[in-house]
């Protein structure tokens, strides 16, 4: 009957931290605890409901037996008034039976009521602890999510300044400098090529002028 309450006490007690330490995912483990506690409460509610039903049934039978005993006494009195002593005796005999039954049922009813009241108190305690655990679960869940986020961000930030990242940036910087050097070399070669062409073109122009002067001289047009 009380195994469910013992389990709740275990979860609420000091073993919670060690259980969480062993859990791969504390949030999922907390959710599992809450599901088990909720199931325990439902089972205990069913048990308490059965005890209350039994208590009310015994109370009803006890009260009926008590009323019947009172009724038999009244009937015995009426029988005596009418002069029927034998009927009065029989009524009193049944009254005694009903009184004994009422007394027995009363004891059973009081025990059932005591048990039901005790379990109702335990059930209220369970619900109170469940609500406390729910608040604690929500708090721990938020803390776990926050810790996960911080860890993820710290890992990302640490990777930004890692040697691997720095080496990658250094390689890219060297690559860009190499490309710039190649571009400058290409410009120098292009400039040198253009100077050579200009000199050759000037040389060609010089040859034409010489030929023109020689032609004029032959023609006497100097």
Automatic annotation (TrEMBL):
Q: Tell me which InterPro entries the record gives.
A: PspA_VIPP1 (IPR007157)
Question: Where on the tree of life does the source sit, at the highest rank?
Answer: Bacteria
Q: What are the TM regions of this chain, as residue ranges?
A: none
Which residues lie within the region annotated Disordered? 77-103, 137-208
Biased composition, Basic and acidic residues: where in the chain? 86-103, 137-148, 163-177
User: Pfam families attached here?
Assistant: PspA_IM30 (PF04012)
- Protein family (similarity comment): Belongs to the PspA/Vipp/IM30 family.
UniProt name for this protein: PspA/IM30 family protein
What organism does the UniProt record list as the source?
Halalkalibacter suaedae
């Amino acid at each position: 009957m009380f195994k469910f309450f013992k389990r709740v006490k275990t979860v609420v007690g000091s073993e919670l931290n060690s259980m969480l330490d062993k859990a791969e995912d504390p949030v999922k483990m907390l959710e599992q605890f809450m599901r088990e506690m909720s199931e325990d409460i439902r089972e205990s509610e069913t048990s308490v409901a059965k005890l209350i039903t039994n208590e009310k049934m015994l109370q009803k039978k006890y009260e009926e037996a008590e009323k019947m005993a009172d009724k038999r006494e009244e009937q015995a009195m009426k029988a005596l008034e009418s002069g029927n002593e034998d009927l009065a005796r029989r009524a009193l005999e049944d009254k005694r039976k009903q009184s004994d039954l009422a007394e027995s049922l009363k004891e059973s009813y009081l025990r059932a009521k005591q048990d039901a009241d005790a379990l109702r108190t335990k059930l209220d305690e369970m619900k109170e602890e469940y609500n406390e655990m729910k608040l604690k679960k929500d708090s721990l869940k938020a803390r776990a999510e926050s810790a996960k986020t911080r860890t993820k961000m710290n890992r990302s930030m640490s990777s930004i300044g890692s040697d691997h990242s720095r080496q990658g940036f250094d390689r890219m910087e060297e690559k860009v400098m190499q490309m710039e050097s190649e571009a400058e070399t290409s410009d120098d070669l292009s400039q040198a090529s253009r100077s050579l062409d200009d000199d050759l073109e000037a040389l060609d122009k010089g040859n034409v002028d010489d030929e023109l002067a020689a032609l004029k001289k032959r023609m006497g047009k100097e």
